[in-house]
Amino acid sequence: MQFYSEAKSLIKVNIREYGMYIALFIIMLTFSIMTDGLFMSSRNISNLIDATGYIAVLAVGMTLVIVIRHIDLSVGFAAGFLGAIAAVLLSQAGVPFYITIPIILVLGIIVGLFNGLLVAQFGIPSFVASLAGMLIFRGALLRVTEKTGTIIVKDENFNAIGNGFIPAITKIAGLNLLSLILGAVMIILYIYSEFSKRNNKLKYNFEVVSANIFTVKVIFVSAIIAYITWILAGYNGFSWTVIVVMIVVAVYHFLTTSTVLGRHIYAVGSNPEAANLSGISVKKITYIVFGSMGMLSALSGILFTARLQSATTTAGTLFELDAIAAAYVGGVSAAGGVGKVTGSIIGAIVMASLSSGMNLMGIGISYQYMIRGAVLAIAVIFDVVTRKKRA
């Protein structure tokens, strides 16, 4: 009874964080039943995760932008334009992929810093500044691709980022061994991280959940990682896209939860005036967050171009809206100061799962847009209601 009471209280207090995980579980279970297990097949889950990669990367950056109470509408066509520049460098200039990728990432940082300059230095509302950027990059993308319409990328190493899989080494019962090893490593690192955080809290006499709740949580999350690893290992294993997204999430999760910079970002989002009075440079944080967003836009463009093995005139269309939706569904607050990068990834997977499941069921694209819009509206309503209750 005590275990049940504590679990109920924990979910109620952290409903924003746990709600999206519950929603994802319900969505996957529902589509799995309605498609006779096809939704949870190794091939579909692998394709779903790979197709989510470029949006997930954008969602991570967008999370931080929204946390500091701004928005960036330019990221979609910035990704499309930078992806096209990568295609030009690879196909027309003959630049090797290992030089092309750093160049594009640096260009992305410059693009982001320009947006940050307009917002932080000139005081232009981020909506207007990024809207101008969106139009500029839309035109730039059309300019780059106007001669051929499509720029084909033939560099196999570059294309492997969007379509390739890590080597298997060997297979055991049809399962990719290296993927199984990586899955096991992730579980070990997760368990170590959870125990480390718990011990640190106990060391300073902070409140922690009971040992029973903690054990259930660790076992449950470890089981999910193991199950997803098993599914992917049964197909082609982890893709390079998944590896890239995992690295991005790990770096940004550490940055936002375990560094002074991360604390400053959330302080600015919670109350910019108070943060400024406490000695935090709001302008500096704005530059860093928008520069980071630009770099992740470039990475998204690389992933998308590599996946299509080409750059097209429509690349980047609606990417920004998908990223914003993923961030809000993942628990970011419209009021700023609240949101986790891990949540934005779950939000991206939720939106991708909806699209994948509805496609498998043969639901028309018109209904798909309406359903996804309704899910986004519900997520924002949920955010507003929970904030009012806390107030």
Automatic annotation (TrEMBL):
User: Could you tell me which Pfam families the record lists for this protein?
Assistant: BPD_transp_2
Q: Which residues cross the membrane?
A: 21-39, 51-68, 75-93, 99-120, 165-192, 213-232, 238-255, 285-306, 369-386
Matching CDD domains, A to Z?
Answer: TM_PBP1_transp_AraH_like
User: Does the keyword field hold Repressor?
Assistant: no
Q: How does the record classify its membrane topology? A: Multi-pass membrane protein
**Superkingdom of origin organism:** Bacteria
Q: What does this protein do?
A: Part of the binding-protein-dependent transport system for D-xylose. Probably responsible for the translocation of the substrate across the membrane.
What's this protein's name?
Xylose transport system permease protein XylH
The organism is Paenibacillus allorhizoplanae
Q: Which gene encodes it?
A: xylH
